[in-house]
Amino acid sequence: MSDKILIVDDEPSNRNILGQELIHRGYAVDLARNGREAICKLESAPAELVILDYMMPGMDGLDVLRELRVLGNETPVIMITAYGSVERAVDAMRAGAYDFITRPFEPDHIALVVQKALERDRLKREIEVLSEEAGQRYRLVMGTSAKMKQVIETAKKAAASSTTVMLLGESGTGKEVFARNIHKWSDRRDKPFAIINCVGLSRELLESELFGHEQGAFTGAHQRKKGKTGAGAGGNCLF
To answer: How far apart are CA 146 and CA 216, in angstroms?
Structure first.
């Protein structure tokens, strides 16, 4: 399915010329004559990208962009105008525009900006999904058995202390899940949580991984490296 782009411009010729160019490049295009119509269209039929004229009667492009953000609409916006200035570009970017383009422009240039804006938005959404999945993965499953309740209570007590905790269990039994939740329950939850996988590391590599090394400390040490214990300073580490 083609990405849908909403073009907002009070000049019919500008809407139609740009619309035909984007249709030719494989995009689905919708048109709006003013800011209010654009907001209504985005509420009823969301688009993947908005190309927004800066100078329009009534609501100008900046007003439209600001209202979209107030409404919680994070659709990427490319601002376009024949009256470009540094001040207007800065205002648009501060309001949340992806880019600011001045007329006249080359079709290939705006096509590239559109492509990059869509790619950036897709990547952003993918990262958000992966972050949510990671959060779900490490959320502790609250069991109902007496044994599980006892283990959880013990883990919470450990989290309230500053002592070193050793978690023992077979592979796949949830040691890392408990370690992450002990970190979340602790008063260091806002600090880093560093993970060091010690399996397969030689003594030299383990020391470097834990404590870091200076440039030239050994063959292959081309630059200074900060150890994981330093990266997790003030927080918690999992070995």
So the answer is: 55
Dist CA 69 CA 153 (whole Å): 43
| Secondary structure element (H or E) that encloses residue 105, with its range | none
- Structure confidence by residue, pLDDT tens digits, 23-33: 999 999 999 99
Contacting residues for 123 by C-beta, under 8 A, at least 6 apart: none
Return the structure tokens found at 75: 């659709």
Q: Does the residue 102 lie in any domain?
A: yes
Query: In the 8-state DSSP scheme, what is residue 222?
Result: -
What is the torsion angle, in degrees rounded to the nearest 10, for the CA atoms of residue 123, residue 125, residue 127 and residue 130?
A: -130
Q: Tell me whether residue 126 is in a domain.
A: yes
Question: What sign does the CA torsion over 141, 145, 147, 153 have?
Answer: positive
Question: Does residue 19 share a domain with residue 113?
Answer: yes
* Confidence band for 130, pLDDT divided at 50, 70 and 90: low
In angstroms, the CA 126 to CA 124 distance is 5
Q: Do residue 129 and residue 62 come from a single domain?
A: yes
What residue has token string 């397969």? 200
For residue 12, the one-letter residue type is: P
Write down the pTM of the prediction.
Answer: 0.57
